[in-house]
Structures are given as C-alpha cells and as structure tokens.
Design goal:
Elements: E1 5-17, H1 24-30, E2 33-50, E3 57-60, E4 64-68, H2 77-85, E5 92-98, H3 109-124, H4 131-145, H5 153-160, E6 163-168, E7 174-178, H6 183-192, E8 193-197, H7 204-214, H8 219-237, H9 241-255, H10 265-276, E9 281-284, E10 292-296, H11 302-311, E11 315-316, E12 327-331
Parallel strand pairs: 3-5
Antiparallel strand pairs: 1-2, 1-12, 2-5, 2-6, 3-4, 6-7, 8-10, 8-11, 9-10
Helix pairs in contact: 2-3, 2-4, 3-4, 3-5, 4-5, 8-9, 10-11
C-alpha cells in the first residue's frame, strides 16, 4: 500500500505571548485570539515502517503495543485516529522518539506527535500535503475526535515551523503570519533565549479545564494577553528585545491570574531568581504548572541566571528557533 519506511521530524513549540486566547472557549465567543509562538530545533521523530505481518499493527512510544489486529485496539489516541482518518487498516509499525522530556512539560509535544504521525502516514501513502492540512487534521483529531482540552497554536507551529503571529477568528479560521526577522535578527533573538527544565511534570488538560470554567471571570486578562501578542509581534520584528521581555513579563503576570495551578511556589521562586539575575522577562511554557521555563536575557547575564537557577534545581536546555516545520527526513 505504501513506502517501506518514512521518518518525519516535527518541532516542539515555544510561546512568547497570547497563549490561552487560542482556546475555543475564548475565541468562539470573544475572538479573535492571538498568540506569538515559534518552533524549536528539537522535537519528535516519527517512523512508519511496513510490518512483517501485514495483518498486524505495532505501535511504540513510551510503551509498545504489539500485534494489534485492528486500528480499534490501539491505545495511543492520536496514532489510532490518524490511521482511521487516512484509512490505513493494518500492516505498519509506528514508532516515536522525542528529544526532550515531553509528558506534561508545556512544549506542545502531543500536538507535535499528532502532526508528525499524520505527515509520516500521508508520506507513507505517497501523499504530499500542506502544513495547513496537517494542522487542521491534527486539530480535528485532538480537539474534535479525542475531545482533549487545549488550543490550536501547537498544531500550527508544529506544521508550519518558524516564528509566527497566529490568530484564530470566532469561526475557527486561522491566520499564520510569519514574522519578518532576517537571519541576523533571528540569530540575535536566539542568543537571548534560555529554556530551563523545572523538573515538574503536570497535566495540561486539567489546567485548561480550570481555565475554561473560570474564563468568564477573566475576560479582561484574556483580551489584554491578545493585545500583548500583537505588541510582541511588532517588537520582535523591530528586534526590540527589551520590549519583548517586558511584554512577556506582563503576559506571565496576567496568565497567573486566570486559574489555580498555573503557577506554584517553586515556579515563583525560579522566576524571581531569574529576574534578579538579569532576565528581561519570561513565562512557563504551555498551560503552566511546571515543565519548561522560557526566559529572554542579555547574553552577558546568562551565566549568572544559569547558576542561580541551577542552585534551585532547574537546568538549562539549549534550544534555537527552527524555521522548518514538520518535515520528512527519510523515506524509502
């Protein structure tokens, strides 16, 4: 039916501002939502290989699901639903491997997985699809079929790559505007970025559900974060990184007001130490609660920031922005 093997690489996501306004509970009633988000140079690899037994399916991620006789038996939701969507009944192996801790760490890993699996399966079938189609299919699987709580930015960043202002209208239509940074500007931004793993893993779904339940009481904060995202996009294009840091700091201040669980004493301690050591601004990735802390800081202050946070048990993970979205890196 398809090629003998395909491997895709799909980036994880970092968000500068506006996260939360891409939740349907906000944009459907109060939209548009807007966020500024970019793709990392680290992500998830997905391999699709034909199975020796053409009547069986093998899926491997944290665990291995072996000798499945039908798609219905697959426990991994996005792999199961991607195979259903593309009408692949059996005879393949789907294997995933991540480059960073990805369970509950706020870097959009579940959506990157969905996009990467879809890209690999389409390619295995001999189909070339656009980033927009990959993102739409991933949103459909995660939000409509699996009913998983969350927004739409992760899927679009994973599919498109780059650094973008992503806006979503009340009818769900999505605009992806690539920010106008040249090579030197992107390198300067990369030199100012720092990403720290807090060591805390948490459930983003529960935080998103709490946000949805409390949203009507915090519409002013959501509106403000949407405006901050648009301001952040302009500041990034002007390469005014001090202003970007200030806007990220304000965005984090607002986000903490949205719901319980977005921050905690340990995260507060880490962020306070980073600011004291010279960080311009920052925020937790994703829904909050733990995972990765994303900071913007002058290069000359980064050594002190790293030492301060390392003493508190958080460790630097070097990352860069990646222009390429989900891509096929091997096929037979």
């Amino acid at each position: 039916m398809g090629r003998s093997s395909v491997v895709t690489k799909t980036p994880f996501r970092v968000t500068f501002a506006g996260g939360g306004t891409d939740l349907p509970d906000y944009y459907r009633s109060h939209g548009p939502g807007a966020c500024v988000a970019g793709a990392m140079n680290k992500g998830i690899y997905v391999m699709v290989v034909e199975n020796f037994d053409r009547d069986e399916i093998r899926v491997s991620y944290r665990i291995t699901e072996d000798a499945k006789k039908s798609v219905d038996e697959i426990e991994h939701g996005s792999i199961r639903e991607a195979m259903r969507l593309l009408r692949i009944p059996s005879g393949i192996q789907v294997i995933t491997a991540t480059q960073m801790p990805s369970r509950g760490t706020g870097i959009g890993s579940s959506s990157s997985c969905a996009v990467g699996v879809l890209n690999a399966l389409h390619t295995w079938k001999g189909e070339k699809v656009s980033p927009r189609q990959l993102a739409r299919e991933a949103v459909k699987i995660e939000r409509e079929v699996l009913k998983e709580a969350g927004g739409i930015q992760d899927q679009y960043v994973a599919a498109y790559g780059g650094l973008n202002l992503i806006e979503v209208a009340r009818d769900g239509s999505v605009s992806v505007q690539s920010l106008a940074l040249d090579h030197e500007g992107l390198e300067e931004l990369n030199r100012h970025q720092m990403l720290f793993f807090t060591g805390i893993e948490r459930s983003s779904a529960s935080i998103h559900l709490n946000q949805a339940n409390d949203m009507k009481d915090h519409l002013a904060e959501y509106d403000h974060m949407r405006d901050l995202a648009r301001g952040t996009a302009k500041a990034l294009e002007a390469l005014d990184l001090a202003e970007v840091g200030r806007l990220m700091d304000k965005n984090w201040e607002l986000k903490q007001k949205l719901s319980d669980g977005i921050s905690n004493p340990r995260v507060d301690e880490l962020y306070k130490a980073a600011k004291k050591a010279g960080a311009l601004g920052g925020k937790l990735m994703g829904a909050g609660g733990g995972g990765f802390l994303f900071l913007l800081a002058p290069p000359e202050r980064q050594g002190g920031i790293e030492r301060a946070l390392q003493r508190l048990g958080a460790f630097l993970t070097p990352v860069r922005l990646e222009l390429e979205g989900s891509a096929v890196v091997h096929q037979d």
